[in-house]
């Protein structure tokens, strides 16, 4: 490892979040070691890392891999988990890693409170935070009772994506349009989780979804925050963010500061809120803790050194000066997927080519594309082409659960953990 700054170990390099994080840190002279579950993933082809290690991204295998890696590193390193599973694993096993690594993260009880949707729903209700109506069900009888009380659409999802849940689907949950569909989806997924949540759906367009990324000190003080909103998603109506832009929303910022401040949170924190068109109220969709998020790189494009603040605070280095949002109009774009979304919008006559090109102006962060690190984008493009060919040539099969849950043009919750975020 080269002399100078402490290394950063980015866990989950095989994701948009991990790739962006590795690039941001490497661009600032930090030696980055990437941990991937799949060396064939496009993210593993980046030149931002001095080394790429293949390992499970959660559980005992991850801990063992980090222990072995730590013995080879010549100094204490900063851990930067980029998946929920890695956050949970590192939080649980931090004591075993403390002699070689620094993990900027609140105590496990606080992490669990915010990560587990059951405990978070209970906490939010007690704290007076605006969340959609939520109930926990552990049996078909409890579901039938809840189904009669809920208005629709609503969402059925697990408290946390366990190994058993992920063995069946990468989706965070399924949106349903009526009680009959709720019971049908439950019959399929009931064995995937011992308890499930039913939550009312927040109705509104994709650009009504706001987020705030932040980093909080060990004393719970906000050291950097950045507010943005989603612009387009791919696939339309059911996908995750293809583009976003910074915006000013003081209500989202205030709710973020209250949520994380009240529990004394330490580390990277993220809150997502959506405006319900029926009431005009902003409602909490969910928090994410302990890791960067897919659109967190927009902060750096907007002049806020969010990731570097987290790294410097953990490494005991002076904090970056640029930690205040000045609303410069920065944008974030996953180029391939945003082009696909824009093409569909143009066909629907909701977006013209000129409007898209004008939107592209100004400072921006790219999810995958980089002129100095082009291989991940090219590999992703190749994977997308191969997938398209496969879909065109495969035989029609029985519809999967996501397609069933999509009836009525309602979205499923994507693998990112949110509906179209």
SSE inventory with pairings:
Layout: E1 8-11, H1 16-27, E2 32-36, E3 51-54, H2 59-72, E4 77-81, H3 84-92, H4 94-97, E5 101-102, H5 108-115, H6 117-127, E6 134-137, H7 140-149, E7 154-157, H8 163-168, E8 173-176, H9 179-189, E9 196-200, E10 209-216, E11 222-234, E12 240-246, H10 250-262, E13 267-275, E14 282-289, H11 298-301, H12 306-315, E15 331-333, H13 335-347, H14 353-359, E16 364-366, H15 375-393, H16 401-405, E17 412-413
Helix pairs in contact: 2-3, 3-5, 5-6, 7-9
Structure description:
Helix 2 crosses helix 3, helix 3 (84-92) packs antiparallel against helix 5 (108-115) and helix 7 (140-149) runs antiparallel to helix 9. Among the domains are: 8-103, Rossmann fold (3-Layer(aba) Sandwich); 206-373, 2-Layer Sandwich (D-amino Acid Aminotransferase, Chain A, domain 1). It contains 16 helices and 17 strands. It has helices spanning 16-27, 59-72, 84-92, 94-97, 108-115, 117-127, 140-149, 163-168, 179-189, 250-262, 298-301, 306-315, 335-347, 353-359, 375-393, 401-405, and strands at residues 8-11, 32-36, 51-54, 77-81, 101-102, 134-137, 154-157, 173-176, 196-200, 209-216, 222-234, 240-246, 267-275, 282-289, 331-333, 364-366, 412-413. A hairpin with a 5-residue loop joins strand 11 (222-234) and strand 12 (240-246). The strands form three sheets. The chain has a seven-stranded mixed β-sheet with strand order 14-13-10-11-12-15-16. It has a five-stranded parallel β-sheet with strand order 3-2-1-4-5. Strands 6-9-7-8-17 form a five-stranded antiparallel β-sheet, with helices on both faces. With 421 residues, it is α/β, with parallel strands linked by helices. It is globular, with a radius of gyration of 21 Å.
């Amino acid at each position: 490892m080269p002399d100078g700054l402490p290394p950063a170990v980015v866990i989950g390099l095989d994701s948009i979040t991990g790739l962006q994080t590795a690039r941001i840190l490497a661009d600032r002279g930090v030696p980055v070691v990437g941990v991937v579950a799949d060396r064939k993933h496009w993210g593993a082809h980046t030149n931002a890392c001095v080394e790429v290690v293949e390992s499970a991204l959660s559980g005992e295998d991850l801990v063992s891999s980090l222990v072995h890696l730590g013995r080879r590193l010549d100094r204490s390193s900063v851990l930067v988990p980029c998946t929920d599973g890695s956050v949970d694993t590192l939080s649980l096993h931090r004591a075993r890693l403390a002699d070689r690594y620094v993990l900027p993260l609140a105590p496990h009880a606080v992490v669990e409170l915010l990560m587990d949707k059951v405990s978070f729903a209970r906490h939010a209700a007690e704290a007076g935070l605006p969340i959609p109506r939520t109930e926990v069900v552990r049996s078909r009888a409890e579901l039938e009772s809840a189904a009669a009380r809920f208005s629709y659409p609503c969402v059925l999802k697990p408290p946390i994506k366990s190994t058993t849940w992920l063995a069946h689907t990468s989706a965070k949950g399924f949106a349903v349009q009526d009680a009959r569909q709720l019971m049908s989806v439950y019959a399929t997924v009931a064995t995937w989780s011992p308890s499930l949540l039913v939550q009312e759906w927040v109705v509104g367009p994709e650009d009504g979804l706001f987020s705030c990324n932040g980093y909080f000190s060990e004393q719970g003080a906000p050291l950097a925050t950045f507010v943005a909103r989603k612009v387009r998603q791919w696939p339309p109506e059911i996908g995750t963010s293809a583009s976003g832009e910074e915006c000013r929303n003081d209500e989202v910022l205030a709710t973020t500061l209250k949520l994380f401040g009240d529990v004394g949170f330490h580390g990277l924190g993220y809150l997502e809120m959506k405006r319900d068109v029926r009431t005009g109220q902003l409602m909490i969709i969910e928090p994410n803790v302990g890791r960067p998020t897919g659109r967190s790189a927009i902060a750096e494009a907007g002049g806020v050194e969010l990731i570097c603040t987290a790294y410097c605070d953990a490494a005991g280095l002076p904090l970056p000066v640029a930690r205040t949002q000045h609303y410069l109009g920065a944008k974030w774009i996953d180029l391939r997927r945003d082009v696909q979304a824009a093409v569909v919008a143009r066909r629907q006559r909701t977006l013209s080519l000129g409007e898209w090109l004008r939107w592209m102006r100004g400072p921006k962060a790219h999810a995958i594309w980089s002129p100095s690190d082009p291989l991940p984008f090219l590999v992703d493009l190749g994977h997308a082409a191969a997938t398209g060919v496969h879909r065109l040539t495969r035989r029609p099969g029985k519809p999967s659960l996501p397609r069933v849950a999509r009836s009525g043009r309602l979205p499923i919750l994507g693998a990112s953990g949110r509906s179209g975020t």
